[in-house]
Design brief:
Helix content is 47%, strand content 20%. It is α+β, with helices and mostly antiparallel strands. It is globular and about 65 Å long.
């Protein structure tokens, strides 16, 4: 019988679609299995005939649009090769040369158009914990929206600050604008990234109840980056920059000081660095959320 039982290639892809809709369905229209031609005009692309034939036939697992159906970003779930994207490249875990070539073509076209296009797998779709029903992909989506809307938000802040900067000297204006830029980014992150927003909510609750005295964090990487002795260590900086492209995992360790003692959690994410997302920031936000949640539970506070 030719009729398929499902439009999805597997149960995990179906569950991921349900999850995306449950978290984001109120602000986005999310479509599964849209043809590639619905996102890009194939006629205008500079590709070979063979590549064009493939693009005419291929679909995209998930396309996230605004409520007017303008595409905002695309997501491919790579359950077969467990790969992920990094700065327009496809990092494949299980070798498959044909699949690699096809996904890299999609990424190449998306990068040429400055369009967010992500390849993810199980690492990015598993829940952060058994109690927190959010995943790395939720942070990727939230951080992407933060990056997209950042220039407009900064302009809005600067426009509203004109009346205040007229009486300031150049140094004061510079500091004030820097503060506005930071505030704009924080406001957008708390608006769009559900992981960052939840971590902030629990942090405020813990501070209000006098449970969280202070906390610290440090960034991690695998493999380790070369040490830099000081700001004048030019050779150390060069070695660090050269090694950066080989980093496979980005991590963050968060330590909270509470009346009960120190609580520490460590989080690792794959290095999916790109124009719109930073794995370092996402690792930090997740580590904060998990640690704050743990402190709240141990203190008998409902997070």
């Amino acid at each position: 019988m030719s009729l398929r039982n499902s439009i999805f290639d597997g149960s995990h892809e179906k569950e991921l679609f349900k999850h995306l809709n449950s978290v984001w369905g109120n602000v986005f229209n999310i479509y599964p299995q849209l043809p590639f031609t619905k996102i890009f005009d194939i006629k205008t692309l500079k590709v070979s005939r063979k590549e064009r034939d493939f693009l005419l036939k291929t679909n995209i697992d998930y396309t996230i649009c605004n409520k007017s159906d303008r595409p905002l970003m695309c997501i491919e779930f790579d359950g077969m090769c467990h790969g992920y994207s990094r700065d327009g490249r496809y990092i494949q875990i299980v070798p498959d040369p044909v699949r690699k070539k096809k996904l890299e073509l999609k990424l190449k076209i998306a990068k040429e158009h400055s369009f967010p296009f992500y390849i993810i797998s199980y690492n990015e779709t598993t829940y952060i914990s058994e109690q927190i029903y959010l995943a790395i992909i939720d942070s990727i989506i939230g951080q992407t929206m933060t990056s997209i809307l950042f220039p407009k938000k900064v302009n809005e802040y600067l426009e509203g600050a004109k009346d205040f900067t007229g009486t300031m000297d150049k140094g004061e204006v510079h500091d004030y604008i820097q503060d506005l830029i930071i505030n704009a980014e924080v406001d957008l992150e708390l608006t769009w990234d559900p992981v960052s927003r939840k971590a902030s909510e629990i942090e405020k609750l813990l501070i209000l109840k006098g449970i969280l005295k202070r906390y610290s964090y440090r960034f991690l990487s695998k493999p380790d980056l070369p040490e830099i002795k000081d700001i004048c260590d030019v050779e150390g900086l060069k070695r660090r920059m050269k090694a950066w492209d080989n980093i496979e995992w980005q991590g963050c360790e968060v330590i909270c000081e509470t009346p009960m003692g120190k609580v520490m959690e460590r989080v690792w994410v794959r290095n999916f660095e790109g124009a719109y997302v930073s794995p370092i920031i996402i690792a930090k936000n997740i580590a904060e959320l998990i640690t704050f949640y743990k402190v709240a539970v141990q203190s008998g506070v409902k997070p």
